[in-house]
Amino acid sequence: MATNDEKNNNLHHANEPEFDEITHEKLLAGHEYDGIRELDNDLPPWWKYLFYLTIIFAVVFLLVYHVFKSADLQDVKYEKEIAAAADLYKREDPAKAAASLTVLTDNESLDDGKATFDKICSVCHGKHGEGLIGPNFTDEYWIHGGTIQNMYEIVINGVLEKGMISYKDQLSPKQIQNVLSYIISLKGSNPPNPKAPEGDRWVNGEKVSE
Amino acid sequence: MEPEKFYYDNKIVKQFAYATMIWGVVGLLYGLFAAFHIFLPSWGMHLEYFTFGRIRPIHTNAAIFAFVGNGIFTAVYYSMQRLLKTRMYSDLLSKIHFWGWQLIIVSAALTLSLGITISKEYAELEWPIDIAITLVWVVFGINMFGTLLQRRVSHIYVAIWFYIATWVTVAVLHIVNSFELPVSLFKSYPLFAGVQDALVQWWYGHNAVAFFLTTPYLGLMYYFVPKAANRPIYSYRLSIIHFWALIFLYIWAGPHHLLYSALPEWVQSLGVAFSIMLIAPSWGGMINGLLTLRGAWDKVREDPVLKFFVVAVTAYGMSTFEGPMMSLKWVNAISHFTDWTIAHVHIGALGWNGFLTFGMLYWLIPKLFNTKLYSIKLANTHFWIATLGILFYAIPLYFAGITQASMWKQFTPEGFLVYPNFLETVTQILPMYHIRAFGGTLYYTGLLLWVYNMYKTVKAGSFIADEESQAVPLQTQGKRAAGEGWHRFLERKPILFLIAAMVVILIGGIIEIIPTYFIKTNVPTIESVKPYTPLELQGRDVYVSEGCYNCHSQMIRPFRSETERYGEYSKAGEVVYDHPFQYGSKRTGPDLAREGVKSGKLYKPDSWHYNHLMDPQKINDKSIMPPYPWLAKKDINLRLTPKKIRVMQKLGVPYPEGYDKIANDELMKQAKGIADGLKAEGIDVEPTRQVVALIAYLQRLGTDIMVEKNK
User: How large is the C-alpha radius of gyration of chain A?
Assistant: First the structure.
């Protein structure tokens, strides 16, 4: 870029050195701004090639996605991801599991149930199952039935008008069984600040008429 | 010709330098507060003025426009006078610029504290302040070009190229992104809606980073680095190539903030492609900065000024490589909505902008006061504390971002989300937030040392308001001479330079924005999507005012891990009445795009929302959301409802003719319904309270499209 035009300016800068004293590189004549000089160095080759490379990437990227359309756009990619997941995870029908459902009492299942409870259920039913927005789990009263089958129905279908959503896409049947077993184990735990009983009284899986 | 005697205006430089320091102390204190508040929700003291949603915009605005902004003006007013061998064009305009800008900052801090915001990131300020910014910016421009036209130097130096590009681009960005229709003095709705609003906003937001945090600071670097090192610029040719490439390419990259969103994918892809092409032009600046220091490395060891500059330029190189990497869709799928982004921007902000500012004033204040720096040792201490501060700030956040993203995406062998409760993924990274706050504290401590050192330097020196200098007047500039390079010619034609820069920066924006606005296929409409009810509209304004978007996105990306967690992914047609859009950019809490869908994954009853807004920790003691008790005490402004409807109609939202007259009746009907429902759950709240409107809005979110699906 050091062109003939500098001749015009050389008048002002007749005493300026032509070369940098440390690097011995050529200084541009006439390029002096408040004492700042500029060197006549070329673009570093690696920098130039990096720039070319990114330009090639950009062009190829745009061509692949939008001209040749040889790669999937995000909607198609998503459909494929969902299809692949449907093939991969043959989930058992949550309704089927209901029939053979039993209350578990082993520690491993109850611990897993508690973990799920703390993560999900406690948000509405209280940290200790004492009830908050949702009903109390520690008394003998149940709105939608007191058997583990009744409760299972609620977990997989939800009670939408009350704000209880369906968890069939978030919890596996085994996880639901564990958490329900844990909930059943809370009976009589008398946590502080219990919510008043709601629904019917159930004892040993039987509705008690009062 | 005889040299003329003239005086540099140092007073204006001093004022901007002081303002830089003062706003640095304030803006970064807000940042530090936010860093603690994010894991200590009680720090808000149950006051609306101190919730994260309001603190964070104050922090970002103060850091960008007050701290860095005044830093820019310090650099411009000092270096331009010297590079052009003239006093600034008008002392009066300099004064108006200075005081106008400070007033804007104060009014920004006040209005944002009060929840007066349009919620577009780094452009939150309401319309009267937007107009004030435009006016002050024009004053700055006249002063700048007046100075250029009365210069005594034939050619303009690279630093000034960057100042010119900054001025014109910021003007264009600010004006277009501020198209809004006022409802009242403190409330307006943006002209654009939904995806279009998002595109305009991130065209602005990205280029605010480019043309407010980057190009003016490159100009600053080009002046202060060679001055402090007393070394020539490495390559003039590189300056030319990287300058034009940078300003041309930068403008296109905005859509990388909206990857995997409902933005038309061709625009997203342009964002990716141009971001990658930005690596070399950005590094051009880094190379010219670092290689200018060749022959001065022994000085770098001793001189704190150069130390700060070296780390600043290195941080610039790092974040301008990282940025393009984050723009790759497969990286963005992980990094977006997480703390990775926060770490990334702070490498730039703390490293590049912060360190350049520190270095500049360590060099400049002693010059202005004709003395030596009070304590080199203290400056070195500042350097090490601040460098450590950046590391303690950024590294934990990278870790937090990657950890959280992977928790969001993990599935059990049965194909269920391993962490279906969002809060778990937050609790996991809290220790990282603690370390980040420690890093921020270190950086802030350094900042205070800096200010103290500057104060002591000022005390020891004597200020010369008008510094004498002399130069030969400029002879008439002729046409392009034979053999004169085209760029060399342009360098002595500042107005032509301005026009050239403007043309170059307009291209990208025009190609990306105009088609999405005028070509219908880019935003497919959805029949079932209807305007918000008046109550929902009012509730939406509460959502905007509280800055909910600072922590909650409303943009479900097309990934199975997101649709399993939140529901159907977001479509462009769903938000056509969203003035402004509320996509958000960070998930400190869960996405809310489908919050209202009853059969959805996140549905909560009204009473849950009420209790949760009043006291999130009562619902879950690990929650880090601050409480919003005032929402149950403050009323929505019913007087504004009809006006809001009319403004929306003007913006093209299809409310029926005359709907504004019955809007408040409709509003009360819906509000009473919600209040009655809450009463049944034992919650007593007046139907006109803000919380009722907000609940109405939350329960509407994402529901329109689901109606269609059920058909």
Answer: 37
CA dihedral B344, B349, B351, B356 (to 10 degrees): 150
> Where in the sequence is the domain holding A28, given as residue range(s)?
6-39
Q: Alpha helices, DSSP H only, in B461-493?
A: 486-490
In B, minimum Cα distance to A167 occurs at: B601
pLDDT at B26: 97
Amino acid at B428: Q
- What is the phi-psi region of residue A193: left when phi exceeds 0, alpha when psi lies from -120 to 50, beta otherwise? left
Residues with Cβ within 8 Å of residue A52, at least 6 apart in sequence: none
Does pLDDT of B553 surpass 60? yes
Residue B154 contacts residue B84 (beta carbons within 8 Å): no
Q: Which residues, at least 6 apart from A6, have a Cβ–Cβ distance to it below 8 Å?
A: A28, A29, A30, A31
CA gap B236, B157 in Å, rounded: 10
Q: Give the Cα separation of B602 and B564 in Å (integer).
A: 11
**A120-124, B5-9, B65-69, B153-157: which has the minimum mean pLDDT?**
A120-124
Q: What ipTM describes this predicted complex?
A: 0.93
A96–chain B nearest CA distance, Å:
16
Do A101 and A188 lie in one domain? The reply is: yes
Residues 84-123 of chain B with CB under 8 A from chain A are 85
Asked if residue A63 belongs to a domain, the reply is no
Q: How far apart are CA B250 and CA B209, in angstroms?
A: 10
Whether B578 contacts B194, CB under 8 Å: yes
Q: Residue B110 has what pLDDT?
A: 97
Give the tens place of pLDDT for each residue, B678-702.
999 899 999 999 999 999 999 999 9
Q: Going from the N-terminus, what domains does chain B have, and what CATH number goes with each?
A: 4-469+487-511 (1.20.210.10), 534-710 (1.10.760.10)
Q: Is B620 on the interface with A (CB under 8 A)?
A: yes
Please, which residues have CB within 8 angstroms of residue B223's CB and are 6 or more apart in sequence?
A34, A36, B75, B79, B83, B157, B159
The string of DSSP codes covering B71-129 is HHHHHHHHHHHHHHTS--S-HHHHHHHHHHHHHHHHHHHHHHHTT-----TT----HHH
Q: What is the sign of the dihedral through the CA atoms of B173, B179, B183 and B188?
A: negative
Instruction: Tell me the sheet residues that pair with B471.
Output: B4
* A172–B416 C-beta distance less than 8 A: yes
Q: Which phi and psi (to 5°) does residue A156 adopt?
A: -85, -25
Candidates A39, A42, A77; nearest CB to B233: A39
Tell me, yes or no, whether A69 lies in a domain: no
**pTM strictly above 0.95:** no
Which residues 413-452 in chain B show a CB within 8 A of chain A?
414-417, 419-421, 423-424
Measure the CA–CA gap between B311 and A49, rounded to whole angstroms: 26
Residues of B with Cβ-Cβ distance to A65 under 8 angstroms: 265, 269
pLDDT digits (tens, 9 = 90+) for B586-616: 999 999 999 999 888 888 999 999 999 999 9
Domain assignment of residue A30, yes or no: yes
Helical axes B534-545 vs B690-700, angle rounded to 10°: 100
Cα dihedral sign, B205-B206-B210-B213: positive
Look up residue B152 and give its DSSP letter. S
Q: Is A102 domain-assigned?
A: yes
Cβ-in-10-Å burial (0-12, 13-18, 19+) of A42 comes to exposed
Secondary structure class of A28 (helix, strand, coil): strand
- B-proximal residues of A, 174-193, CB under 8 Å: 175
Among B131, B122, B207, residue whose Cα is nearest residue B165:
B207
List Cβ neighbours of B247 (8 Å cut-off, separation of 6 or more): B165, B169, B211, B215, B501, B504, B505
B405 φ/ψ angles, rounded to the nearest 5 degrees: -60, -40
Hey, which residues 84-143 in chain A have their CB within 8 Å of chain B? Answer: 85, 88-89, 91, 119-120, 122-124, 127, 132-133
